[in-house]
Q: What sequence folds into this?
DNA sequence: TAGGCCATCTGGTCCT
DNA sequence: AGGACCAGATGGCCTA
């Protein structure tokens, strides 16, 4: 089943940077509070301290004084913040990509995997279109046409060896239009 | 309720 | 050494 037309998710507030090991941060419910932890689950505190239920890695340098532990926790929180920012940047790039993919209903937000797949096939269909036009010797395209076609053939040869299904330019266009159709249908 | 998608945390590894 | 990158784990939200 698919998730369609989902409104923007509620942002989880940033983690409290004053938190210390042993405290529960409020941004996410703790499985261990109240009901017992499910198998394989650990509390955030346990995870922050690098403790695994069994056979896990243990972060070095956390067995010392409180000061060292505090600076370690501080580093981890800063790292978390950087990671959040990095993921936001990545999501912005996904959004920018969504906005340049045509023929998709504006009220339907593409998932990440849909965005990547559609973009890939859109690029391929554009490439196929360009090749078709340039092989027809359009005015002003005398130069790059043959080179572009050679490059394309090399790419196809490499891809064909890996079993790529689209051997002809028309295949890309067909695949792209088919995919657009399926996305619009919500399948 | 199950499953899909996502945000966030986390520790390991790579890179500068 | 510190930051970027990556992948696994976890849990929330949403839809069918």
A:
């Amino acid at each position: 089943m698919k998730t369609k037309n989902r409104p923007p998710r509620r942002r989880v507030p940033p983690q409290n940077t004053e938190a210390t090991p042993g405290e529960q941060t409020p941004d996410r419910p703790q499985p261990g509070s109240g009901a017992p932890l499910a198998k394989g689950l650990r509390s955030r505190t346990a995870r922050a301290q690098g403790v695994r239920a069994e056979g896990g890695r243990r972060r070095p340098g956390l067995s010392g004084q409180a000061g060292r532990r505090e600076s370690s926790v501080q580093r981890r929180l800063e790292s978390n913040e950087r990671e959040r920012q990095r993921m936001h940047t990545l999501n912005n790039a996904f959004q920018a990509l969504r906005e340049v993919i045509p023929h998709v209903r504006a009220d339907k937000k593409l998932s990440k995997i849909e965005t990547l797949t559609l973009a890939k096939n859109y690029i391929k269909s554009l490439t196929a279109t360009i090749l078709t036009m340039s092989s027809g010797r359009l005015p002003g395209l005398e130069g790059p046409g043959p080179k572009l076609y050679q490059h394309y053939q090399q790419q196809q040869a490499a891809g064909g060896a890996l079993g790529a299904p689209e051997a002809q330019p028309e295949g890309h266009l067909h695949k792209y239009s088919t995919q657009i159709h399926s996305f619009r249908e919500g399948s």
